[in-house]
Amino acid sequence: MGDLDTKAAVLLDFWVSPFGQRCRIALAEKGVEYEYREENVVGHKSPLLLESNPVYKKVPVFIHDGKPLCESLIIVQYIDEVWPHRAPLLPADPYARAQARFWADFIDKKLKGEGHAAAKEEFIGILKLLEGELGDKKYFAGDAFGFVDIALVPFVSWFYTYETCAGFSVEEVAPKLVAWGKRCMERESVAKTLSDPHKRRERQRRRDKKRAMKAVVLLDFWACPFGQRCRIALAEKGVEYEYREENIRGDKSPLLLKYNPVYKRIPVLILDGKPLCESLIIAWPDRAPLLPADPYARAQARFWADFVDMRFFEYGSRLWKLKGEAQAAAKEEFILILKLLEGELGAKKYFGGDAFGFVDIALAPFVSWFYSYETCAGFSIEEAAPKVAAWGKRCMDRKSVANAVSHPDKIYEMVGVLKKRLGVE
């Protein structure tokens, strides 16, 4: 990689970026030496940044032994996995680990996305949800400073700005969260990284009980590609479960509202009475591994699965939700997304190589949407990305996929109904 000849670990970052600050705190907690390279995020980006993150072209990027990693939460997980014996950031228990990822993802989606632009009332609601998860614990995971704390703490230095711009007091609406932020600021890793007052918290919960494979329930909706991911994964693992169809357009079941009070949506996997939400977080640890054993390959798989959620799904939806020039622009972007995925797939059978895995499960449910995308936007996926089209056919030959995904005609029929509701037709 071109411009890289110094330390084995290099962080491309911008001093005030809360996402880069996550990486710096994690590296400090682990005692890892690295080279910090400041990026000009508002001007000309360095060739190293553009080479290392050609997909998003943004900081932070962590380069380890010449191999780049992007997206702060993926980087922090990688750091925890590569240096596992020093200050563990994620809990050992799979359920607690999944819950930590859920709340870190919640922070990204709400504080990073909706949260910053949300009305004051919505933002206060987010603070209260986080405070409810924190409870009376020292950190989010208990006594140990961890993954969720690292995800949230950089935003604590923004509290003063939020309060001043919106005219309210964070301490009045979420006093435990403010106290948590002050505790975090007493940690050397946080104090030396952040530009201001109190930040960070979160760890996860229990580490005891091994699980017996009983009571497994999936709350889902037949056409939901995110729920289909869970069904494919469960089939690959050979896990028996009870499927419960949810009425996502009408009255949601008390069970759904109880087990996903944060987002109030499917899919929800209930394991021995413990709920897990968000399709990419829901997983099963043994039998037919879906993620690679190598920490770097595992982090890359999470990156591309996240890319499917953030880019492929978003622009695929625009193909049938929009029309005219807006739809044409979405189609152009969607074809670029297909080409990026095709570049990552290359000549491999599946995204992970010969083994069907995590990225394949993330993308496979959308194969049944290809016909709707093509028909609504007037193009051919096979012409734009022949390797992705061939990969989709291979996936459909797998029993786990064929039994989970919907027929393209049924999806197209549903899309027609949705378009009428949206007034697109």
From TrEMBL:
Segments passing through the bilayer: none
Domain GST N-terminal: 7-87, 214-294
EC number: 2.5.1.18
GST C-terminal domain segment(s): 93-212, 294-412
Record key words, sorted: Transferase
GO molecular function list: glutathione transferase activity
InterPro entries referenced in this protein's UniProt entry, alphabetically: Glutathione-S-Trfase_C-like (IPR010987), Glutathione-S-Trfase_C_sf (IPR036282), Glutathione_S-Trfase (IPR040079), Glutathione_S-Trfase_N (IPR004045), GST_C (IPR004046), GST_C_Tau (IPR045074), Omega/Tau-like (IPR045073), Thioredoxin-like_sf (IPR036249)
UniProt superkingdom: Eukaryota
GO cellular component: cytoplasm
Catalytic activity: RX + glutathione = an S-substituted glutathione + a halide anion + H(+)
Gene Ontology process terms (BP): glutathione metabolic process
Pfam family, one: GST_C
Its biological purpose: Conjugation of reduced glutathione to a wide number of exogenous and endogenous hydrophobic electrophiles.
Family matches, as PANTHER family: GLUTATHIONE S-TRANSFERASE U19, GLUTATHIONE S-TRANSFERASE, GST, SUPERFAMILY, GST DOMAIN CONTAINING
Identification of the protein by name: Probable glutathione S-transferase GSTU1
Organism: Musa troglodytarum
